[in-house]
Amino acid sequence: MSKPKILIIYTGGTIGMIRDEVKGTLKPFRLQRVIKSIPSILHLGIELHAMELDRIIDSSNVTPLVWIELAEIIEEYYTQYDGFVILHGSDTMAYSASALSFLLENLAKPVIFTGSQLPIGLPRSDARENLITTLQIAALQNAKGQPMINEVCIYFEDKLYRGNRTHKFNSENFDAFLSLNYPILAEAGVHIQVYQERLLPQSNAELVVHTKMNTNVAILKLFPGLNILPYVQAFKSAGIEAVIIESYGSGNGPTDEGFLGAIQELVDNQIIVLNITQCREGKVEMGKYETSAALVKMGVLSGTDLTAEAAITKAMFVLGKTENYAERGRLLTQGLSGEMFG
After folding, report:
1. For residue 16, what is the DSSP state?
2. Nearest CA to 48 among 82, 88, 71?
3. Could you tell me the sign of the dihedral formed by the alpha carbons of 194, 198, 200, 201, in that order?
4. I need a surface site. Which of 69, 83, 144, 153 has the fewest CB within 10 A?
5. What is the DSSP letter of 185?
6. Per-residue confidence in pLDDT tens, the chain, 342 aa
7. Residues in contact with 239: Cβ distance below 8 Å, sequence separation at least 6, in sequence order
């Protein structure tokens, strides 16, 4: 059997950082130095190829243009490789993985993000294990010689997560990510255990790569005492087309006339309002309590158990896909790539 072929795409991030001796800050260095830091990856039984973005960036500088660039790279090399590993900073990794999950429709191969909390050159770095195991998982094949993983994932600290279900919750520990509303897809111990029943169904359709995202999206976190009126005016003035509300508990918000009138004004102006919960675990169940029943009546959409990262990137994707208000609402409340309950 031929070796699985994996393409590593380096975007930047802590995994490839070195210290600038003059400024005392961390800065990215080139991919080949990352590879040379882990000689053992050359003995994994994988045919490896690597490339990097023209402009290596810290993940804090990631934009939708970077997501589209990554999608186009995968489209260009899709038939040549069995899987793709994207080295990326952890701070916005959940956003990027969520975005790619929508941009790569009918994906039938692994696209796995990984990175590290410490630069690869430091003695206690988590980069080596993360990169080696990610490559091994990306190269896994079933009995028919097909890739075992067929979705966009994040691998970090022994666990493989569905990318659009993740949230970075810790900036200090190596175990930096959580996926509270969906179980892990695989875990690495002495052996790599893949939970196949949790994976997305294998797609037999041709890959469709989307390359348009509309960034006229805003997010508003509710808090006691919020004066929502200035936000509504700002949203309208800025041409915002979708507002994501981070509400309380199972989708609840204030019942005073000022708040409800402001939300109604957004809806009346055909601005999509999508309701997600501030809680990291659980889902929106609009209408369960009186404090969310009014939102249902005025046409606020339920984001069920979407993460904030998935809600934002999905909204950008949907707004870029269609200008029809009703179709936007339909797509936002429909599961597209395993990102939400139901």
Report:
1. G
2. 82
3. positive
4. 144
5. S
6. 689 999 999 998 877 766 666 676 655 555 666 666 677 787 889 999 989 898 888 899 999 999 999 999 999 999 999 999 999 999 999 999 999 999 999 999 999 999 988 877 676 778 888 999 999 999 999 988 899 999 999 999 999 999 999 999 988 777 889 999 999 999 999 999 999 999 999 889 999 999 999 999 999 999 999 999 999 999 999 999 999 999 999 999 999 999 999 999 999 999 999 999 999 999 999 888 887 889 999 999 999 999 999 999 999 999 999 999 999 999 999 999 999 996
7. 216
Closest-CA residue to 279 (of 301, 304, 257): 304
Element at 127 (helix H, strand E): helix 127-138
Which of 149, 170, 165 minimizes the C-alpha distance to 84? 149
Residue 154, token pair as written in the block? 């994040």
Cα dihedral sign, 222-165-57-25: positive
State the Cα–Cα distance between residues 270 and 34, nearest whole angstrom: 48
47 phi/psi in degrees, rounded to 5: -85, 110
Identify the active-site residue in 11, 14, 114, 304.
Answer: 14
Q: For the chain, which domains are there?
A: 5-209 (3.40.50.1170), 217-332 (3.40.50.40)
| DSSP letter (8 states) at residue 248 | B
Phi, psi at residue 25, to the nearest 5°? -110, 165
d(CA 342, CA 333) in angstroms, rounded, equals: 9
Provide DSSP, 77-111: HGGG-SEEEEE--STTHHHHHHHHHHHEET--S-E
Decide if 14 is catalytic: yes
Rounded Cα gap, residues 32 and 183, in angstroms: 34
Residue written as tokens 């430091």? 122
**CA 162 – CA 98 distance, rounded (Å):** 9
